[in-house]
Amino acid sequence: MVLSAAVGGGSVTGVFTVTGATIALAATVVVLIVVLALCLGGGGGMGAESPPPAPGASCIGGHLKIMTGETPPWIILNQIGKEQGDVMSLKLGHWVIMLNTLAAIKDAAVNFVKEMGSRPTNYTSNLLNENGKDISLGEYSHDWLLLRELGIKNLREFTANKKLEEIAHIVLKKLGDDLDQRENQPVNVKDIMVPAVAGILSHLCFGFDADPSIHDRVARLFGGGLYKYIVGPRLPVDVIPSLRFFPSRALSEAKATVNELNGLLRSEMKRHEESLDTAMTRDLMDGIIKCRNHARETEPDKYKFLTDTHVYQVISNYLGGTTAGFLVSSLTATALLVSNSDQQEKFSAEITKAVGEDRVPGLDDREELVYVKATIEEILRYACIAPISVPHKTTQDITFRGFKVPANTGVLCNFYGLHFNEEYWPEPFVFKPERFIDEDGKFKSDEHMYPFGYGARACLAQTEARQMIYLILSWLTHRYSLCRAPGEEDNDLLVQDPNVKVAKAVAPFNLVLKRRF
Ligand code: HEM
């Protein structure tokens, strides 16, 4: 998923290389036209019966400056939202509405599943999903629903019977051998989490018989170039689409990265098709090809939309969803555990008590590990990777909480306002796993938690994501004590990564690993 998938704007980055006076003049004209278009309708609101516009819109650019400033946009929008009530509207290139309260978000999640179930599109999203042929960035339609169903079915069936645990343990064993060589030395958190997260996902998707260089390329793509496009600032072309006609280094780099990914996916799909074994499903790529074959054989008319591109884009979505959701959460998780050593010790001690020192924690251990489950829930609350949500879009004209909202309006939710609201969570910025443990010492969930989004677009891998985060964190803290790097003892590890604009993500930091036994 692209976390900012067309908030219609957002911060822009990259170097725009203009060659020659004619192009420069043409670019200036285009920019002026766009500025004029933004200016017209900048502060006037969506219409008389529509949600009230948030204050602070400028004639030029509407509320876009909120998305581009130094302060993270969710902090500003949360402040504004507190005054505005259930719903407000913002001009971020296009008009979007923002749901500010639990009541409004619940209403959307329960009663407007289809009506708020689409996604806005932009240049980058069309580039990534080859014009709408995927789950994460595709617009809501009958065919899109069928593709999402196939994506879920494949994931559920392949990861049943502890396949995820089996693969995670193999990948983590190798990572442990590598990390042991770096014991007691500063290690960057990304050097732990990228191989762990991308390694598990890449093996889930492409199997153990893939060329090992495939897994390295997946780690490099998703830990680097694609991480930038998925959670980083928008490309200028997503704010001003006409810029696609002009040469741009940022755009060429984006195209090269997407071409590399799609080339890798196509060649892996071909390799899998040529060696497909009907009796055995080696990995998620085998699984989705079999889902496609079965759908074509049994209901050819219903699935005639299903091209090869749709098939490998599902795999791309597993990898992209993992990068955006899981990699970002795991960086914050490590920062929280290093910064809160008492909680880390309690977390590790509960695992060691249940598992001992001679084996690694498995999924069967999880049920009795109440403090571990509560800590992971507190991590998901604090990480809140999509603080203003991944944008949805309305599929039709609706009346929502008394307001008229036209079709194709972007929909944002103030999840930050729920996850950090002191009415629901006393001392919301303090890391307290105990919030999720009841008086009887049992794990308790909470209705103000929305780490995986909502409605038709809710994360399709919540079960697997919870399993993975448990498997990685329990393995890591059982084996190592995670300590602050020398000379960096007083650093705040929870500062926002300045290169990440729409996701809440900590800046990469160093830590030191010490074997516990
Ligand atoms: C801790 C880990 C994760 C978190 C916090 C997370 C969070 C999210 C969020 C907030 C969304 C957007 C929901 C919305 O628009 O309302 C999402 C969507 C998605 N996630 Fe995850 N995710 C995680 C792990 C994963 C993993 C491991 C996968 C794949 C194996 C995955 C695949 C997807 C996909 C494909 C979508 C798009 C769904 C759609 O548009 O229909 N996620 N995730």
UniProtKB/TrEMBL annotation:
Cofactor(s) demanded: heme
InterPro entries in UniProt: Cyt_P450, Cyt_P450_CS, Cyt_P450_E_grp-I, Cyt_P450_sf
Keywords recorded for this protein, A-Z: Heme, Iron, Membrane, Metal-binding, Monooxygenase, Oxidoreductase, Transmembrane, Transmembrane helix
Transmembrane regions listed in the UniProt entry: 12-40
Record-linked PROSITE patterns: CYTOCHROME_P450 (PS00086)
Record-level Gene Ontology MF annotations: heme binding; iron ion binding; steroid 17-alpha-monooxygenase activity
GO BP of this protein: hormone biosynthetic process; progesterone metabolic process
Domain of life: Eukaryota
Record: residues binding heme: 459
Family: Belongs to the cytochrome P450 family.
Protein name according to UniProt: Cytochrome P450
Species this protein is from: Patiria miniata
